[in-house]
Amino acid sequence: MRLAILDDYQSVARDYAPWEQLAADGVEAAFFDRPFKDGDDAVASLGRFDIIIAMRERTAFGRDVLAQLPGLKLLVTTGMANQSIDLRAAEELGVAVCGTGGSPTAAPELTWGLLLSLARSIPLEDRRLRDGRWQSTVGFELAGKTLGVLGLGKIGRRVTAYGQAFGMNVIAWSPNLTDEAAASAGVRKVSKEALFRESDVVSVHVRLSERSRGVVGEEELRLLGPAGVLVNTARGPLVDEDALIRGLKEGWLGGAALDVYDLEPLPAGHRLLSAPRTVLTPHLGYVTQQSYREFYGGAFGAVQAWLRGTPVRLLTGVSR
Asked: Would you state the CATH architecture of domain 2-103+288-307?
């Protein structure tokens, strides 16, 4: 059998699991360290593989791609949810899909790092210091400001705690948020409109679905205003990217700290790269040593379990 380990951008997957042990089960592993250009490129590259390990949502496995991989028997995604895999199609095509564990702290910590970087212009000051310039910006403090958390799940709750530790007033909204859940996190539940109108900073932490796509549009960004900041470490399509860029360039939005985008990897020359008052990172939310141990170690274990006929963390009804 042949195993493909995809999107190993840092060329470190070999270090996080004992892949060589799979040779005893007749499995030959291959590592891919570059993204595919498109679905056709993925199909052309993966047609000979029986097992594929996908790193988060870096490669999409829609019905069109899965249907052209007749030899595929097992698809492992890192994490337990992957919007880029058509689970229904996989099940219909007889492809078992398994998940892995992950780190609960990686994404919240990056969220706060991005916010601090934007508030104090850390990346810009770093570049200018290296160019010989000393103090060229005036930052703002977080203490006393209002943090709006859009989505009070596991990540949103951690970000809430960080905000409270920094002396921020925290409010929250999501479509299904209850007064009890908000109170248990020590925050005030507000309407969506109030979240953007009252907040100095809004941090996005809802899951992407057809219902949540574009949940932050021009109306919400205008409410946030010329002094307001948006932080998005969830998924790019949750925010109207065109409206976001217009707001930054026209000055009716104060700033944005982003780790996720509509199109990833973000192509050279993209308009966000030249947008003012931004801090941008290349979807690093889950890219930590701890996460990779969970992801690659879990994926290795999922392959072993499937080979032995006892699959773990199945996301489809197909087991073998």
From this structure: 3-Layer(aba) Sandwich (3.40)
Tell me if residue 283 is catalytic: yes
Catalytic residue among 2, 109, 264, 313: 264
142 vs 140: CA distance, rounded Å = 7
11-70 confidence digits (pLDDT tens): 999 999 999 999 999 999 999 999 999 999 999 999 999 999 999 999 999 999 999 999
Backbone angles phi and psi of 74, in degrees to 5: -135, 130
Single pTM value for the model: 0.94
Q: Are 259 and 285 in contact (CB under 8 A)?
A: yes
Tokens of 311: 């699959």
Token pair for 309: 């006929």
Output the average pLDDT for the chain.
97
Listed by start position, the domains of the chain span 2-103+288-307, 106-280
Sign of CA dihedral 152, 154, 160, 161: positive
Domain 106-280, second-level architecture: 3-Layer(aba) Sandwich (3.40)
158, 235, 241, 294: the active-site residue: 235
264 is catalytic: yes
